[in-house]
Write a structure and sequence with these properties.
Largest sheet of chain A: 7 strands, antiparallel
CATH superfamily of chain A: Electron Transport, Fmn-binding Protein, Chain A
CATH class of chain A: Mainly Beta
Oligomer: homodimer
Number of domains of chain A: 1
InterPro entries (chains A, B): Pyridox_Oxase-rel, Split_barrel_FMN-bd
Radius of gyration of chain A: 21 Å
CATH architecture of chain A: Roll
Protein name (chains A, B): Pyridoxamine 5'-phosphate oxidase family protein
Order of helices and strands of chain A: EHEEEEHEEEHHHEEHEEH
Strand content of chain A: 35-45%
Largest interface: A-B, 95 and 96 residues
CATH topology of chain A: Pnp Oxidase, Chain A
Helix content of chain A: 10-25%
Number of strands of chain A: 12
Number of helices of chain A: 7
Organism (chains A, B): Pseudonocardia xinjiangensis
Structural class of chain A: alpha+beta
């Protein structure tokens, strides 16, 4: 299945970096931990980092019902962007310096999720995106915790995916001139060793598989 | 010097995570490689990842003069957000799962930079933010390359910084109950080994210090 571009989800700049398969969109979204959520408040954009989760063709975000930015979200136009930086691209010219990356930009309308079953599934997807295995391991939400949590869904119907890979695109003259290094410095996101909570009795529970083996 | 909050740069949710020193803002911005830039297009938000650089109290972004999103930027309200994910916070309850992070949100107006000296300084700052040492090592921009590049400055007068560190904030009852792991899985961004450009003669130029020792 392929993404159906609309004017705002059609990539006009560096088209060769555009990806058009639904699977590419899923892959970029599913590999992320943080998205950047854009809203319009009093005519100005606001961009905030937050966690998210995906179920089929809906991406979910959540927050406290007390969070100001979520109070304006229901029915509002929204943009959700996930970016992975994969490398710094060093060229012979400063002009051709670049980044290798994968990014997904989702344009849509925030829909307040009120159905209890969908809310629970969305929260599970958000927790599992950040910390796979946690939904089973940790204590489930109470009615009071659920009441304090706002959940929004955004349809993936209108989205674009952009990917850059590979070496720099230097000009022929600069390549011929020589004498300058060019290439890619890979960038990776890695996990360190788990740091147990100080309130955890030392011998009570070791870091479980879903944390320690990540 | 401290940040002077305006209504939109005042953190109302989880105030204990707010930082108010100018130095905190600089530190978050200076440690980043990618920002997420928010603009309003036809009433809807657009959030795009891009490089950036800072000089004193201005943060700069650039792009091709052919890029659609930059054509709408001059004089427009803009939001520039930089986020560092430092850890996944595993709590005993799914409700208290969180992230450790540092984020800066800059609200402002995009100013098209036209002065040649400021443009060059801004481009240098952007290149050096992504790849320190490259401005000296690589070929400088030609007049034609400069003409193809749009540069925008955003004043740092209106910005907020938010930082979460430390272990999860579990409820006392969950701590007392025991049996569940809690703690932080650190997240780090690391560089891999430099990958030389295939067009580089193998013995011509080794990866220079500013790349290899990063």
């Amino acid at each position: 299945m392929s993404l159906s571009p609309t004017p705002r989800s059609t990539i006009t700049r560096l088209r060769e970096r555009a990806r058009s398969a639904q699977g590419d969109l899923y892959a970029v979204l599913d590999a992320g931990l943080v998205c950047h959520l854009g809203l319009v408040r009093d005519g100005a954009p606001v961009v905030l980092p937050t966690g998210y989760g995906r179920i089929d063709d809906t991406v979910y975000v959540h927050g406290s019902t007390g969070a100001g930015y979520l109070r304006i979200a229901d029915g509002a136009p929204i943009c959700l962007t996930v970016t992975h930086l994969d490398g710094v691209v060093y060229a012979r010219s400063v002009f051709h310096h670049s980044m290798n990356y994968r990014s997904a930009v989702v344009h849509g309308t925030a829909r307040a999720v009120t159905d209890p079953a969908e809310r629970l599934a969305a929260l599970r997807a958000i927790v599992e995106q950040l910390s796979p295995g946690s939904w089973e391991h940790a204590r489930q939400p109470t009615p009071r915790e659920l009441a304090a949590t706002a959940v929004f869904g955004i349809d993936l119907a209108e989205a674009s995916v952009k990917v850059r890979t590979g070496p720099p695109g230097d000009d022929e003259e600069d390549i011929a001139t020589g004498g300058r290094w060019a290439g890619v410095l890979p960038v990776r996101t890695v996990f360190g060793a788990p740091e147990p909570c100080p309130t955890l009795p030392p011998v009570d529970v070791p870091a479980p598989e879903h944390v320690g083996a990540r």
